[in-house]
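User: I'm preparing a small set of examples for a lab meeting where we compare how different chains pack in three dimensions. I only have the primary sequence for this one, and I'd like the structure in token form so I can line it up with the others. Please keep the answer compact; I'll paste it straight into my notes.
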Amino acid sequence: HLNQGGLRVWLRLKYGRLINAPNFARDVSSVGHWGNGDLELGISSLAQLKDAEPLIRQSFEGSGG
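Assistant: Understood. Below is the structure token output for the 65-residue chain.
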């Protein structure tokens, strides 16, 4: 979802399984949210987008449990 502050992405990954979760990641498994994954990324810079890339790839590969 594109908004004024940046990009909001929901991934099919479990927040609890992440090692060193980035500070822009949020567990939304127990709250109402827009999207279909349990991990929400609030990306507001190119540096964060670069840091999010491995998580996005992991979600596409289906290894996020």
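A couple of notes for your slides: Residues 29 and 38 are 5 Å apart (CA to CA). The chain has a mean pLDDT of 90.

User: Perfect, thanks.
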